[in-house]
Specification:
Largest sheet of chain B: 2 strands, antiparallel
Shape of chain B: globular
Oligomer: heterodimer
Largest interface: A-B, 113 and 131 residues
Number of helices of chain A: 36
Number of helices of chain B: 20
Number of strands of chain A: 17
Strand order of the largest sheet of chain A: 2-1-7-8-9
Shape of chain A: globular
Radius of gyration of chain B: 24 Å
Chain lengths: 899, 512
C-alpha cells in the first residue's frame, strides 16, 4: 500500500480513518473465505459474524441482502401442517421470542394468523448503480467488469497470457489497468477514467474515506450498510481475497498481495463513478439515495425486526421439534430387530459364536468384550447410514465415529499431482508434509527421505507438532509409467489450449472426440457390467511400505513423536483397549464423473480431499511393531500383536467400501477380512437403497451409473439433511435410525480423565460440523448469495471456481442441484443441534475456556444439548418424557443474554 | 413428480431414428454419385417447388455428423437437465434444430435451403432464450437474431439473383449450367459481374452465420444457456456457413472476389479468435473464441479451394467442440495432475518455424506448377502449431525420454492417418466440388491473397509468442484489447440497449 503524501497529517482525519477502518472491517465480516474447487470445503458464510447474536445478524443481513434468511413463511406452515412442527415446540419458541419482541401475540393461533403471509421488507440499502432507474443496468455492468478484472488478476492457469499487472497489489494493478481498459467508456460511462484516476494516489482506505465524504454518507451505520451492500455484489471474489488472507495466516505461501479492503475500494470506485455521472442529471434521486443511508434503521429497532421475528420463531420451532424427535429416539430402546443388538452393554451376552478358527484361537488372549472387527468411520452424516447397516447385519462388527482425517494433519504431495494437497481441516496448518518422489532411475536405492520446513511460519502449530516436517517417499515402477502417461497426455492437452497448435490438434485428433463421446456415454453401462471396482482416484502411486520407510529415517518426525501423536489419536477414538483382530480405518471420498464440484462431496475434515491417504498412513503407522512398543511404553495402550490395522475407503456415491492396499496385508488378515467384506457388501447394498430415496426420488436409481455418468448433475445428495451432531458412546445411538442426518462422534466421558478429548471435539469437529451445517443452511435459504447457482450454466473461471453464465461474480457455496431436486429443496435448513453426553460442568468449563464456543453457542449459531450421563445403562431405557427432560437445553438459559 | 419423461423419451427416440436413417444412407451416399429423392413436388407459376433430398458424400457425411451429435446431446441432457423446468422445451427445440440442419444439408434446391436455414435460426433463437428470465441470455439472443437477419437477407437476395440468372433453384441444374459455361461456350451477358455479385452475397451469408470477424461478438456471450445448447450451437449450427460455401463451391469458383473474401476474412477471424482465446479467464468463453478461430480456419481452407480439408475440419471440429463443452466439468480434475507447462517458443524456434513453413509454402507453388498450393499453404499454417515448447513441472528426477518418444510416435501416426483421411475425402468429393488443382479464372488473385494470409499467420505466430510475456506497452495495450474481445461486445450491448429500451425497473426499495 502506498503512503499518503497528499494528506495533511491532520489529527482528526487520522482519527476518522481509524474509525473508518473499523467500520470497513465490520462490514467485511459478510465475507467468509472460499476454497478453490480443487479442494473446496464447506464454510460457514457467517463465520465472522459469530461474535454477534444470530438474530441480530440475520435480521441485519435481511436488509443488506434484500431477502429473508429463513424459509418463506408458507414453507413453515406446510411443515406445520405435515406435523414436522408440533404445537408444543411452536409455543415454546413463541414464548422465547416474546422475551425479545414484546408485541408478539401470546397464543400460537394468533401467531399463525399473523404469519399467514410473507410481508415485504420495508427498508433496503441498495448501492447507487442498483437503484438507478435507467435503461442501462449499471449494476450488471459493474459486476461483470469487476469480475473480469479480478478473475484476470488471480488467474494462474486458465489464460495463457498472464495478466500483466498480477505482481503488484490489487489496488495499484487495477489503476495500472485503468490506463488501458476502455470498457466503462465503451459501455457509455465516458468520464470514468478521468474521474477515477485521481484516486490512484490514495491508499484504499483513504480512497474509501474520500468517496464516502464526497457521496455525503456521514452516518456510521449508513456507511456500514453501504459498504456491506457493496460487498454483496462481489461476494464471491471478495471471498477469494479472504481465502488468500486465511491461507496466509495459516502459514501457506501466498504470492499475491491482495487485501479485502482493496476489493471493497475498487468496488466502491465503480459505484462512485456512476454516481458522479448521474449527479448533475438527477440530483433529486441522488439526494434521496444518500438520505436513505444517512437515516438508517437502528439495529435496536424492535418493531422493524418483527418481520424477521416471525421467520425466526418458526425456524426455532422447527429445530425444537427436531430436537425433540431426536431426544425421543435416543431415549428409547433400540428397535428390536432380529439382528439388531445393543452392543457393549454388560448384561448383553448375545454375541454370536465366533465362526472362524482364527478368531476362536485369539479369544483366549483378550476379554470377552473383543468384537470381530472395529471400523473407524468419519463423523460424516453419510457414514451414519452405512455404519447402521453394518451393525445391523453383523453386530460383531463395531463401528467408531472419528473425524475423517484421523488426527493426521498431513500435507500430501502425490507424484501424479501438481501441487501438494492438505488433507486436514482447513482450520489447522499441516503438521507433516509427505512428498512422493521418484529416485533416480539409474540407482535402485530405497526411499530418500528428507526433512525441510515448507512453511516456516507454522511454528505455532496447535496440532502438537512444533513445525511442519517435510518427508519424501519413493514410489514404484508402475507409478513411473503413470507419470510418463500423464506427461504425454499433458503435451496434447497443451496442444489443444495454445493458439495455432489448437488448429493442429483439431485436425489430427479432433475426430477422436467421437470415440470419446461414445465411450463416455457407455462407460456407465460398462461399469455396471464390470461391477464395483476400486475407483482410479483411490489407486495411489505410493505403496504402504513407503510409509514404513518414512519411519526408518531419522530425519523428520521421530518415532517418539509419532508414538505420542498416535496414542493421542487412539485415545480420541476411544480405542485404548479391547482391540479387535482387525481394525479398519475407513476414510471416505466420492467418485463422480465430469463434476467440477466433486471435492464438495469429499471429506470436509480432510480439507476437501478423500480420506484415503490419511487412512493408509494411520493404518501403516499403527501396524509398525516398533511404534506399538513405543506407544505402550509411553502411554500404556497395548495393541495386541495379532491386531492388524486395515485402511479402507468408503465411496459415497455407491456406498461401497474398498480395502486399500489389500495385497500388502498378511494373509491371516486377508482371510479375516473376507467375512467383513461380505458384511460390507450387504451393508453397501442396503445403504445404497436407503440413500437413493432418502432425500428425494429424483436420483438415478442405479448408483453406479451416477458415479460413472458424465452428464450426471446429482451424483448424490452429499451432506444434505444434516441437522445433528451426536457426541456420545456408540451404544447411545446403535440400532437407531438417524436417517443420515446426524454426525456421530464416539465419546465416552468416563474414559476421558481431564476432558481433554471433549475439549478437542468441541473445538475442532464441532466447529467443522457447524461450517458444514451453515453452508447447507445458507445455500438453501439464500441460494442467490451463498449458493453457486445452477450447474447447467456453470462456467469455470481460472480453473479454480465457477461463475454462472456470462460471468461477473464468482459463485461460492453449493450448486443448486446439490440441495434442490427440481421442485423443492431437499435440505431442511436447521441449525446444528449438538447432543453431548458428558457432565454439565465439564461442558461448561470447556465453553468458558474458548471464546469461539461461547460465540457459537450463546449466539445461537448452533444448539448444544446435553444428554444426562447415566451411571447405570439400564436406566437409559426409560420412557422418553423423562429422557427429554434430562437433556438440558443450554441455549434456553442464555438465550437472549447476548444482546 | 412429473418429469416430462414421455416427451424426453419420444424426442430421444426420434433422434435415434434420424441417426439410424443417416447411417443407413451413409454407404449409399458415399458409393454412388449425387442422386435426388423427390419427396414432394408442385408447381407455382413457373417455379418448381421441390421437396427433395440431395444425396451425395457431402450431404451424407454432414447428415451423419448432425444426427450423431443430436443423439449424443439428447442422451446427455436426460440427466444433465433433469429437474429443469424447461427440459421438455429444450428437447422440443433440440429436435427442431437437428431436423432443420438435417434438411439444410440434404436440401436439393435453394428454396428448401433457405427455409431450412431460416428454421435453424429460429430454433436456435428459441434455445438461446431458454433462460428467459436472465437478461444477459436475452441480450445475446437478440444480437444473434440481428446477425441472422442480416445473413438471411443477403441469402434471400442471392437466391433471387440466382433464380434470375440461372432460371432454376435446383443445385444440380445450376451446376450443370455452370459446367457448360465454364468451357466458355454460350456465356450469358455480364457473366463475370453477375456471378461475382451472387458469389459475394453467398459468401457474406456464410461469413456472417459462421461467426466470422466482425460478426462473432455474440458467440462468447451465449454462456447463459445450458451447456448442451452451447455444444449444439458450436458443433452443429454455426457450421452451416461452411456447408453453404462447400455446397456452392462450383458457383463460387467462378465468382470474382468470393475466395479472396473467404481467405482474408477467414484468416482475420482465425487470428483474432486465437489471440482472444489466449487471454480469456473462463473456460466457456475460451472455447467460444476457439470456435471463432476454428471457423476462420475452415473458411480459409474453403478460400484456398481445399474443400475436402474444410469438410473434414467441420467434421472434426464439431465433435471436438461438442465434447469440449460437455466435459468442462473435468477441468478441475485435470488441473490437479502433473504435466508439461506451456512455454512460448523462443526466437530460434520461431525462426525455424517460420523458415520451414515458408519453405513448404514455396514448395506448394513449385510442385506441379502450383496445382496444390492450397493444401500446402493450409498444411504449413497447421504445422506452425507444432513449434510449441514446453517445460516439465517438478517431476524430478524423472527421465522425459519416454514421454518424448511417445509424443513423437503419436504425432507421426496421427499425421499419416490424417493425410490418408484427407486424401480419401478429396477423392469422395471429386465431382461435387471443384478439385484442388482446378484452374479457376481468378487463381492468381487467390494466390496473392493466400500469400498475404500466410504472412499474417506467421506474424500472428510471432505475436502470440511474445504476447505470452506482455511486458511492453504495446503488448499490454494489445492484451487488454483482446481480453475485452475488441470491445465488440460492449458496443453491441450498448446498441441493443438503444434498440430495445428496457422497461423501467420496479423499485425495490422505498424512500424514507
Amino acid at each position: 500500500m502506498r503512503k499518503a503524501h497528499t494528506f495533511t497529517k491532520d489529527q482528526t482525519l487520522s482519527a476518522s480513518l481509524v474509525e473508518l477502518e473499523q467500520l470497513i472491517e465490520a462490514s467485511c465480516k459478510l465475507v467468509a473465505p472460499t476454497w478453490p474447487l480443487q479442494h473446496t470445503v464447506a464454510v460457514n458464510p457467517f463465520w465472522f459474524f459469530i461474535e454477534r447474536h444470530y438474530c441480530e445478524v440475520m435480521s441485519e443481513l435481511a436488509s443488506t441482502l434484500h431477502q429473508s434468511l429463513h424459509l418463506p413463511l408458507s414453507r413453515y406452515q406446510t411443515k406445520y401442517a405435515a406435523g414436522d412442527i408440533d404445537d408444543q415446540s411452536l409455543a415454546e419458541a413463541l414464548r422465547l421470542g416474546k422475551q425479545r419482541w414484546h408485541s408478539l401475540p401470546e397464543n400460537i393461533e394468533e401467531f399463525k394468523k399473523l404469519s399467514s403471509q410473507d410481508r415485504p421488507f420495508q427498508r433496503y440499502y441498495p448501492t447507487f448503480a442498483e437503484q438507478l432507474l435507467s435503461s442501462t443496468d449499471w449494476l450488471e455492468i459493474i459486476q461483470s467488469e469487476f469480475g473480469k478484472v479480478t478473475a484476470a488478476y488471480f488467474d494462474e492457469k486458465q489464460s495463457i497470457v498472464p495478466f500483466p499487472w498480477r505482481k503488484g497489489d490489487f489496488w495499484s494493478s487495477w489503476f495500472s489497468l485503468l490506463d488501458f481498459d476502455d470498457s466503462m467508456h465503451r459501455h457509455g460511462l465516458k468520464s470514468f477514467r478521468e474521474r477515477i484516476k485521481t484516486f490512484a494516489k490514495y491508499t484504499p482506505l483513504e480512497a474509501i474515506h474520500t468517496m464516502l465524504e464526497s457521496l455525503g454518507i456521514e452516518n456510521a451505520r449508513g456507511r456500514y450498510l453501504y459498504m456491506q451492500r457493496l460487498c454483496v455484489h462481489v461476494l464471491g471474489w471478495a471471498s477469494h481475497f479472504r481465502y488468500l488472507e486465511w491461507q496466509k495466516n495459516l502459514g501457506y505461501e501466498i504470492h499475491q498481495n491482495a487485501q479485502l479492503i482493496e476489493c471493497l475500494a475498487v468496488r466502491m470506485l465503480y459505484d462512485y463513478a456512476v454516481f458522479l455521472d448521474t449527479e448533475h442529471r438527477l440530483p433529486e434521486l441522488c439526494e434521496t439515495w444518500v438520505h436513505n443511508f444517512n437515516h438508517p434503521q437502528e439495529p435496536s429497532d424492535q418493531e422493524a425486526s418483527l418481520d424477521f421475528a416471525l421467520g425466526y420463531i418458526w425456524q426455532t420451532a422447527l429445530e425444537k421439534a427436531y430436537q425433540k424427535r431426536i431426544a425421543l429416539k435416543l431415549g428409547r430402546p433400540a428397535r428390536s430387530e432380529p439382528h439388531s443388538h445393543v452392543r457393549g452393554e454388560p448384561h448383553e451376552h448375545a454375541r454370536g459364536q465366533p465362526n472362524s478358527r482364527e478368531e476362536r484361537s485369539t479369544h483366549t488372549s483378550d476379554s470377552p468384550q473383543q468384537p470381530k472387527a472395529q471400523c473407524v468411520f468419519c463423523i460424516d452424516v453419510r457414514s451414519e447410514v452405512i455404519r447402521r447397516h453394518i451393525e445391523n447385519i453383523d453386530p460383531e462388527i463395531h463401528t467408531i465415529g472419528f473425524a475423517g482425517f484421523f488426527g493426521l494433519a498431513v500435507e500430501y504431495h502425490s507424484l501424479t499431482d501438481q501441487k501438494p494437497s492438505s488433507r486436514l481441516p482447513v482450520l489447522l496448518p499441516p503438521a507433516v508434509s509427505i512428498k512422493e518422489e521418484l529416485t533416480d532411475t539409474t540407482s535402485k536405492d530405497t526411499a530418500s527421505t528428507t526433512c525441510t520446513h515448507p512453511h516456516p511460519s507454522t511454528q505455532t502449530n496447535p496440532n502438537g507438532g512444533s513445525h511442519a516436517h517435510h518427508l519424501t517417499c519413493q514410489v514404484d515402477r508402475q507409478a513411473r509409467s503413470t507419470v510418463t502417461d500423464l506427461m504425454t497426455r499433458s503435451y496434447f492437452r497443451n496442444l489443444r489450449k495454445a493458439p495455432f497448435s489448437s488448429f493442429l490438434f483439431v485436425e489430427l485428433f479432433g475426430v477422436l472426440s467421437v470415440e470419446n463421446m461414445i465411450r463416455k456415454t457407455w462407460r456407465a453401462l460398462s461399469r455396471r457390467i464390470r461391477g464395483h471396482r476400486l475407483p482410479n482416484r483411490f489407486q495411489q502411486t505410493a505403496q504402504d511400505h513407503n510409509f514404513h520407510a518414512l519411519l526408518k529415517s531419522n530425519a523428520g518426525v521421530s518415532h517418539e513423536e509419532w508414538a505420542r501423536r498416535l496414542a493421542g489419536i487412539l485415545r480420541g477414538m476411544g480405542l485404548t483397549k479391547d482391540f479387535a483382530l482387525t481394525v479398519c480405518v475407513v476414510g471416505h471420498g466420492s467418485d463422480t464423473s465430469n463434476n467440477a464440484f466433486n471435492s464438495s462431496l469429499d471429506c470436509g475434515a480432510c480439507g476437501g480431499h478423500a480420506g484415503d491417504v490419511n487412512a493408509r498412513l494411520l493404518a501403516s503407522l499403527l501396524n509398525q511393531q516398533e511404534i506399538r512398543v513405543l506407544i505402550k511404553s509411553q502411554s500404556g495402550i497395548v495393541i495386541p500383536h495379532e491386531t492388524t490395522f486395515v485402511a479402507a475407503v468408503h465411496e459415497t456415491v455407491t456406498d461401497e467400501i474398498y480395502v486399500l492396499n489389500e495385497e500388502g496385508l498378511p494373509s491371516l488378515t486377508r482371510n479375516r477380512l473376507a467375512s467383513i467384506k461380505q458384511t460390507w457388501k450387504q451393508a453397501s447394498a442396503r445403504a445404497r437403497a436407503e440413500r437413493s430415496i432418502s432425500r428425494s426420488d429424483v436420483l438415478d436409481r442405479a448408483a453406479i451409473r451416477r458415479a460413472a455418468n458424465w452428464s450426471e448433475v446429482r451424483p448424490e445428495w452429499g451432506l444434505a439433511g444434516n441437522a445433528a451432531f451426536l457426541v456420545a458412546p456408540r451404544r447411545r445411538s446403535v440400532g437407531k435410525n438417524m436417517a443420515g442426518r446426524s454426525f456421530l462422534h464416539d465419546y465416552d466421558w468416563r474414559q476421558d480423565k481431564d476432558f481433554a478429548i471433549l475439549e478437542q471435539i468441541m473445538t475442532a469437529p464441532m466447529v467443522v460440523t457447524n461450517w458444514i451445517n451453515m453452508q447447507y443452511f445458507a445455500s438453501v435459504v439464500a441460494p442467490d448469495h451463498f449458493g453457486s447457482g445452477s450447474k447447467v450454466l456453470h462456467n469455470l473461471v481460472n480453473e479454480t471456481g465457477v461463475v454462472e453464465g456470462n460471468g461477473g461474480n464468482l459463485r461460492t457455496g453449493l450448486p443448486l442441484q446439490s440441495v434442490h431436486d427440481g421442485e423443492e429443496f431437499v435440505h431442511e435448513p436447521l441449525r446444528l443441534s449438538v447432543f453431548i453426553e458428558a457432565p454439565q460442568k465439564a461442558i461448561e468449563d470447556i465453553i468458558a475456556k474458548h471464546p469461539v464456543l461461547q460465540h457459537l453457542i450463546d449466539h445461537q449459531w448452533l444448539h448444544v444439548l446435553r444428554i444426562e450421563p447415566l451411571e447405570k445403562v439400564e436406566e437409559r431405557l426409560e420412557p422418553f418424557e423423562a429422557q427429554t427432560a434430562r437433556i438440558s437445553r443450554r441455549y434456553a438459559a442464555h438465550d437472549y443474554r447476548a444482546i | 413428480m412429473k418429469r416430462q419423461t414421455a416427451h424426453i423419451k419420444l424426442t430421444n427416440a426420434a433422434l435415434w431414428l434420424l441417426c439410424g436413417l443417416a447411417l443407413l444412407l451413409l454407404p449409399f451416399g458415399l458409393s454412388s454419385g449425387p442422386s435426388k429423392f423427390v419427396v414432394f413436388t408442385a408447381q407455382l407459376v413457373n417455379l418448381d417447388l421441390n421437396l427433395s433430398l440431395f444425396i451425395d458424400p457431402l450431404s451424407v457425411i454432414l447428415f451423419v455428423m448432425v444426427t450423431v451429435l443430436g443423439v449424443s446431446i439428447g442422451n446427455y441432457s436426460i440427466r444433465y437437465l433433469d429437474g429443469e423446468r424447461r427440459q421438455a422445451y429444450f428437447y422440443r427445440f433440440l429436435l427442431w434444430v437437428i431436423i432443420s440442419v438435417s434438411l439444410l444439408v440434404l436440401s436439393s434446391n435453394l428454396l428448401m435451403f433457405f427455409l431450412a436455414w431460416w428454421s435453424t435460426g429460429y430454433g436456435l433463437n428459441k434455445l438461446l432464450t431458454y433462460n428467459q428470465d436472465r437478461p444477459q441470455a436475452v441480450l445475446a439472443a437478440r444480437k444473434k437474431l440481428w446477425i441472422s437477419r442480416l445473413g438471411e437477407m443477403s441469402l434471400a437476395a442471392a437466391i433471387v439473383l440466382t433464380y434470375q440468372f440461372f432460371g432454376t433453384l435446383e443445385f444440380d441444374q445450376i451446376f450443370a449450367a455452370l459446367s457448360v459455361w465454364q468451357t466458355g461456350s454460350a456465356q450469358p451477358e455480364d457473366y463475370t459481374l453477375q456471378l461475382a455479385i451472387i458469389g459475394c452475397l453467398y459468401v457474406f451469408t456464410a461469413l456472417s452465420s459462421s461467426v466470422q470477424f466482425p460478426f462473432h461478438f455474440w458467440l462468447p456471450e451465449t454462456m447463459e444457456t445450458p451447456t448442451p445448447v452451447s455444444a449444439l450451437m458450436h458443433a452443429g449450427v454455426i457450421n452451416a456457413g461452411g456447408f453453404l460455401v462447400i455446397r456452392l463451391s462450383p458457383l463460387l469458383q467462378e465468382a470474382l472476389g468470393a475466395h479472396v473474401l473467404l481467405i482474408l476474412v477467414g484468416t482475420l477471424s482465425a487470428i483474432f479468435g486465437a489471440l482472444c482465446m489466449m487471454t480469456q479467464n473462463t473456460i466457456k468463453t475460451k472455447l467460444a473464441y476457439s470456435t471463432v478461430s476454428q471457423m476462420g480456419m475452415m473458411m480459409f481452407a474453403c478460400g484456398l479451394g481445399a474443400y475436402g480439408i474444410a469438410l473434414f475440419h467441420i467434421f472434426a471440429h464439431s465433435f471436438y467442440k461438442a465434447h469440449a463443452f460437455l466435459s468442462t466439468g473435468n477441468l478441475i480434475e485435470e488441473t490437479k495432475k502433473v504435466g508439461f507447462k506451456l512455454k512460448p517458443p523462443g526466437t530460434l524456434l520461431s525462426l525455424v518455424a517460420t523458415l520451414s513453413t515458408s519453405l513448404m509454402v514455396i514448395g506448394g507453388y513449385v510442385v506441379e506448377e502450383g496445382a496444390f498450393y492450397g493444401p500446402f499453404t493450409y498444411g504449413s499454417v497447421i504445422l506452425l502449431g507444432l513449434f510449441l515448447s514446453f517445460v516439465p513441472v517438478k517431476v524430478q528426477p524423472f527421465r522425459l525420454t519416454r514421454s518424448f518418444i511417445a509424443i513423437c510416435i503419436v504425432l507421426i501416426i496421427a499425421g499419416c492417418v490424417y493425410a490418408g483421411i484427407e486424401y480419401m475425402i478429396s477423392d469422395l468429393l471429386s465431382g461435387q466440388v471443384p478439385a484442388v488443382s482446378d484452374p479457376s479464372p481468378w487463381r492468381s488473385l487467390r494466390m496473392t491473397a493466400s500469400v498475404i494470409a500466410f504472412t499474417l499467420f506467421v506474424g500472428c505466430f510471432w505475436l502470440s509468442g511474445s504476447l505470452m510475456q506482455p511486458d511492453s506497452l504495446y503488448l499490454k495495450r494489445l492484451y487488454v484489447y483482446l481480453w475485452n474481445g475488441g470491445y465488440f461486445g460492449h458496443m453491441s450491448s450498448r446498441m441493443m440497449r438503444r434498440l430495445y429500451p428496457q422497461p423501467t425497473k420496479v423499485k425495490r426499495w422505498s424512500k424514507s
